[in-house]
Every structure is written in C-alpha cells, then in structure tokens.
Amino acid sequence: MSQALRQDIINIAEEQIDEIKQKIDYYTTEYAIEFIVDKYLEQDDAGFGEIYLPEFQKKLRWDINHQSRFIESIILGVPIAAMIVVEIYETGRLEIVDGAQRVMTLAAFLTNQLQLSNLETLDSLNGSYFNDLAPSRQRKFKNTSLRMIVLSDKADEKVRNDIFYRINTSNLDLTPNSNSLLPNS
Q1: 9 in helix, strand or coil?
Q2: Which pick of 17, 37, 108, 130 has the fewest CB atoms within 10 Å?
Q3: Percentage helix, strand, coil, to 5, in the chain?
Q4: Cβ distance 149 to 28 under 8 Å?
C-alpha cells in the first residue's frame, strides 16, 4: 500500500471517528436509589416515568437468584456498574439504555415484591423483603448512590441501539475455571 493511499485511509477514518463521537456526548452523575426508583415508578397518563424503559427492555430477564445477589451487592457496598440513560429532548425524560434489569430489581425490592433468596454471603437475609430490614438499613439502602451516564439528546435511536448492542454482546459468561476470583475455582 502506498504512503498516499495509507494517509487517505487514515484521514477518512479520522473523519468518521469525529463524526460518530459527536453523537456520543454525555456526562456522569449519581442519584440515590430512592430517587431512581421513584422517577421510574411515578408515571404520567401515557404510562411513562421521568426514567423509563423502552418497549424492548420491559421484560425482567434476571431470575430471583440474580436479583437477590444484586441487592446483596448493594447492601455490602460492592461497586455497581454505571447505568446508561439518554436524555430525550422532546420530553426531558431519561430512557434507560443499559440498566433495565437493575432498575426493575430495585423497584421490586423497594416495593416488597422481591423476596431475597439463595444468598451465600448474607444468608441471614434469605426470605427477607425490604420491609424486613432494620429501619436504619432501609434508609442506608435507599440513600445509596448509583452512577449514571447520561447521553445527550444528540444520541439518536441508532446510537442508543448500538450502545445497547455493544454492552450486551461484549460480555462473556465467566466460569469458575476462567477466573480464579470466582468461588469454586
């Protein structure tokens, strides 16, 4: 490949990168769990909260064990991955791009629809609902902050779908043999 052709390819690639990066403008913030759940559950006449799920994400896919371990992780103070939302210009609402399972699990737990089960670390909480926690623990849980990446309204549906796809297809399931930090490895 000639040096001139190689430089043309580099220039085209740089222009393409700059064009696409402009659509992925964002800021990072933190909200208390109680705020996130309230904004998700409080819905207007059209059935949308200030934080809402797109239609294709409305099914809870996590089983009870996954949900319980997620709640246990928050109680233990384990760092939780940031949720990704996009600000919708027309409504000012936040559409969840990544984090639907987490938000639905938090809502189920705070509304006493999720009974913790099969916990290994905090096994004394098996069979417990949110209301079974000590009042001070309930307050601490509700006031726990979770990080949110807020994409600007420049992130059109194509960009949102691309981000969702990249996040949800790039993770590999770990097995005990593939990570020595996992139990039973």
Answers
A1: helix
A2: 17
A3: 45, 15, 40
A4: yes
Is 15 in contact with 142 (CB distance < 8 Å)?
A: no
pLDDT for 26-49, tens place per residue?
A: 889 999 999 999 999 998 777 778
Show the tokens assigned to 21.
């990066």
Amino acid at 22: Q
pTM higher than 0.90: no
Give the full edge-to-edge strand order of the sheet including 83-87. Answer: 26-32, 145-151, 83-87, 94-98, 51-52
Return d(Cα 7, Cα 104) in angstroms, integer.
49
| pLDDT confidence band for 179 (50 / 70 / 90) | very low
